Amino acid sequence: MKRFIILGGGYGGITIAQTLLEGHIPDDVIVMLIDRMPFQGLKTEYYALVAGTVADYDLRVQYPADPRLVLKHGEVTDVDLDARLIHMAGEDPISYDWLAIALGCTDRYHGIPGAQEHSTSLQTFSAARQTYRLLGDVKPYGQVTIVGGGLSGVEVAAELREARRDLNIQILDRGESILSAFPGKLQRYVSSWLHEHEVRTVGGVSVSRLERGVVYNRDERLDTDVTVWTAGIQPVPIVQRIDLPKDSQGRLIIDSQHRLPAHPEVFVVANSAPFPFSPRAQAAGAQGKQIAEILAAEWYDRSPRLSRIKLKGVLGSLGKKAGFGLMGRTAIMGRVPRVLKSGVLWRSKHHSG
Predict the structure, then answer these.
(1) In-domain check, residue 189
(2) Can you give the pLDDT of all 353 residues of the chain as single tens digits?
(3) C-beta of residue 178 within 8 angstroms of C-beta of residue 187
(4) 316: in domain
(5) Is residue 55 part of a domain?
(6) CATH code for the domain of 237
(7) Dihedral of the alpha carbons of 327, 332, 336, 339, in degrees to the nearest 10
(8) Is the Cβ–Cβ distance between 177 and 171 less than 8 Å?
(9) Same domain membership, residue 96 and residue 14
């Protein structure tokens, strides 16, 4: 028997598995999905979990129940590409014939002293739960500081404002404006919403270090009860340790079929590889479909049928009643993008039932 292992059950990994299950898997191939959790966490909605406006249970999606898919749960500690082995904590190594690395990302702290030790994260379900606990324990009129004014930082701030009207909330960003990757029209709309809801935004910040209860903007001391870090991502440590060509952000270089050139039996998804698309969840799903098609073509000795990847756009929420988005080059603001985002979440939760 040959074995195809999918490392990571997030948007990319689950799409690979679901797409393969929709087709025919050869009788001599075992498909195995390995993840530390017994369910998929809807990572794009973790901002609501940390704010306490959505329950943990509501952001879980069960993995497909299919006899052709072997589910294994545990902590992957290393990948040996030369020996084609997956190492797991407390277990014997698992061999593979094909591998998809879809392990997501972790926070990038940019070498800032104390950043990892004195801030809290959204990057895993466990980290989001911990952040929820810390934010929930902030006393009335306490200070919450969000480092990073991108999509995640804005969504956390807005959702937290709806959950806790008593808190002082500020977003610190190194750019002059939040949401620097978005058009000026959207930046102004979101900035206005945050201002109206008494969320302070501070641009041109250079975070120099963190201490317990303190963020330093160069030498300026900013006292805080909780600091939420949303200031960049990088590949997980397992990918960081792989000694193969990478881009400037530490992501593994892949070919046009999402394979490692030195190990064509290995596919790499989204945050672990440079991919010219955003948002990442959609991009991972699009890659996942292509990887499943490429594998099926290899198994049945035919040419893969690949269409050009086109993403639908990006949507952001400002609490439960307002939002913003970019559909192609068209900016949308207000109630409509929030309703659209709710529909996307519904489909994500019910797609794999």
Answers:
(1) yes
(2) 999 999 999 999 999 999 999 999 999 999 999 999 999 999 999 999 999 999 999 999 999 999 999 999 999 999 999 999 999 999 999 999 999 999 999 999 999 999 999 999 999 999 999 999 999 999 999 999 999 999 999 999 999 999 999 999 999 999 999 999 899 999 999 999 999 999 999 999 999 999 999 999 999 999 999 999 999 999 999 999 999 999 999 999 999 999 999 999 999 998 898 876 665 788 889 999 999 999 999 999 999 988 888 878 889 999 999 999 998 889 999 998 898 888 777 667 665 43
(3) yes
(4) no
(5) no
(6) 3.50.50.60
(7) 50
(8) no
(9) yes
Q: Which residue has the tokens 């639908």?
A: 312
Residues 259 and 164 in one domain: no
DSSP secondary structure letters along 237-278: HHHHH--S-B-TTSPBP--TTSEETTEEEEEE-GGGS--S-S
Residue among 283, 271, 275, 274 nearest 314 (CA) = 283
CA 137 to chain CA centroid, nearest Å: 25
Residue 23 DSSP class: S
Clarify whether residues 298 and 247 are in a common domain.
yes
Q: Residues with Cβ < 8 Å from 248, sequence gap 6 or more?
A: none
CA 282-116-205 angle, 5° bins? 80
> Which of 231, 257, 283 is the last residue in one of the domains?
231
Compute the distance between CA of residue 350 and CA of residue 122 in angstroms, rounded to an integer. 23
CA triple 17-19-23, angle to 5 deg: 110
Picking from 44, 208, 198, 51, the residue whose alpha carbon sits closest to that of residue 115 is 208
From 231, 254, 289, the end of a domain falls on 231
Domain that holds residue 82: 2-36+74-106+233-310
- Give Cβ neighbours of residue 193 (< 8 Å, ≥ 6 apart): 158, 318, 322
CA dist list (Å): 249 to 45, 233, 234, 277: 25, 9, 7, 15
H or E segment and range at residue 209 = strand 207-211
Residue 68 in domain: no
The model's pTM is 0.93
Number of structural domains the chain divides into = 2
Please report which helix (H) or strand (E) contains residue 144, including its range: strand 143-147
